Amino acid sequence: MDLPLIIEPSELQAALEKKEPLLILDLGKRDTYQQAHVPGAISVAPADIQLGTKPAPGLLPTQQQLSILFSRLGLTHDTHVVVYDDDGGPWAGRMIWVLDSIGHKNYSFLNGGIHAWLAEQRPIESQENTAAATHFEVESIDESVSITQTQLLSAIEEGSVQIWDARSLKEYTGEKAVSARGGHLPGAVSYEFSLALDSDNHLKLRDLNVIRQELAAIGINGEQSLVSHCQTHRRSGLTYVIAKALGWQMRAYDGSWAQWGNDPSMPIETGE
Questions:
Q1: Mapping DSSP to helix (H, G, I), strand (E, B) and coil, where does residue 182 land?
Q2: What predicted TM-score, i.e. pTM, was given to this entire model?
Q3: Annotated catalytic, 230?
Q4: CA distance 229 to 235
């Protein structure tokens, strides 16, 4: 099936009408899902794609946990997965990263998620959907799509990395501290994830060429090793997808600021 990385509501509806074999995953809030979701969509709790342990709850779950999850969701190696959420895409983007991490490359991200779907008056349903379970074994983790704290510290010291901080500007400057320490990674630049979303167009992504220009203006161009993070690698789930759409290889720092900001041995900067 030849579906693009970023799929529009019209394209997804056309695929549904053709009865294409899709696994559609809704990463939005449960109450939103229970009111309305894309036909056939299965609700996935965001907690299921996080390790969930402090100080870095955003780390990738274990291979066993992921095997259990994707078996329950009915994943096979040939399945094309479509992901969306109700917040413009951070959880859906994180799911794309999880799929990359387990080596599953057949996926699409629904532009605008449920907000765009509803705004365009696409067909909906409200009943709970479940999948026919499979035996999906996560045999290995692709570590090329992630970076550890130790690896990132080395890259910062070598000056060999561009770091995209997807948090709010106040978190970046240290004015707002969510961890023991506020501030940002040395050399990181701030571009809050929501800047990429069009609030006047149902949280669809803004023009990717404009986003590319805005990122280039602050020193992010994908020409060096590129890393993104937020507090727990939710918001940077969206930046991960944007980088893929721009043709850039990005690694997610899933430990994120929850890990770095709570480790007193890690260097930080504050201010702009």
A1: coil
A2: 0.97
A3: yes
A4: 8
